[in-house]
Amino acid sequence: MLRLIIALLCLPFCLAAQKSPRDELVQLAAAGNGVIRLDERTFDLLTSPNRDWSAAIQLTALNPQRRCGPCKEFGPSFQAVAKAWSTVNPEQRNNHFFASIDFDDAFQVFKKLGIMSAPVVHVYPATEGPYAKTTRNDPFKYDFSNGFEARPLAEQLSSHTPISIPYKDPINWTRVTSLISLIPIVALVFRFIRPVLQNRWVWAANTILLSTIMTSGYMFTRIRVGLRQGFQTQYGQEVQVVSLLYGVLAGSFVLLILGLQIYIWTADQFYHVLYPCFHVFRVKNRGYPFKLLF
């Protein structure tokens, strides 16, 4: 009789000490810095058919004897996304869990899931409650087509979490240092090329070159099929000749303007220079699409 009384007195304390599955998972996540380290028992607990939470589980093989290079490469990305999720307020955070299970800790789980390679990420959506998306216990498999980076992982997993994962890429100090170190180099180079950039003849030559390329049909044939037959009777090889002729014409006009200003050239001399170029266009058929006025 005394034992029965003692048992009845201890019953409330036993009931108070018993934790719910969610409370156990919350404690395991807090102990693992946002990632639950699973074994066979906790895997079954996390993926129980009747759950009102979702979970993203990394199945990996980090034992050096397994020689799983992708597992070591992907592990930090998964940890970073889980750490970002741990900053969410508890009302949302406790509705989704991040977990990791190693091959050596739960061989039977890998066998049951039929997983022969790692890493693999399975997402188990909630089957009950306000966040339930399905009543089936089948997981979604993460697509590694975007590589092992953390940002694509966070973006894809955000479609299965109560709210978006607040992941931000860490500052790439190596890139920042490289950019800063380039500043004096660029300043030094600019000091030497500044006179060239301020030279009007350089800009005149670039203008002529650009105009020649755009008006000779070169861009047209390159866009179409490269050095093949282009518009009507024009061929890719012919473009080079036409480009040269247009360059001579453009340069001649520039020299004419400068020459007349200092009385070096006359109009007749200029015509004799351009006549051979115009003659080339005369021998072309009348339907030539890039001919000049002559």
Low-pLDDT regions: 11-17, 226-233, 290-294
Largest sheet: 5 strands, mixed
First-last Cα distance = 125 Å
Helix content: 40-55%
* Strand composition percent: 5-15%
The overall pLDDT average reads 79
Features of this protein?
disordered C terminus, 55% helix, 5-stranded mixed beta sheet, 12 helices, single chain, alpha/beta, 294 residues, elongated
Verbal overview:
There is one protein chain. The protein contains twelve helices and five strands. With 294 residues, the protein is an alpha/beta fold. Strands 1-3-2-4-5 form a five-stranded mixed beta sheet, sandwiched between helices. Helix 4 crosses helix 7, helix 9 runs antiparallel to helix 11 (236-261) and helix 11 runs antiparallel to helix 12. The protein is elongated. The N and C termini lie far apart (125 Å). Residues 11-17, 226-233 and 290-294 have low confidence and may be disordered.
TL;DR of this structure?
The protein is an alpha/beta fold and 294 residues long.
SSE order and pairing:
Elements: H1 2-17, H2 21-31, E1 35-37, H3 40-46, E2 54-60, H4 69-85, H5 90-93, E3 96-102, H6 107-113, E4 120-124, E5 140-141, H7 150-157, H8 173-197, H9 200-215, H10 218-224, H11 236-261, H12 267-283
Parallel strand pairs: 1-3, 2-3
Antiparallel strand pairs: 2-4, 4-5
Helix pairs in contact: 4-7, 9-11, 11-12
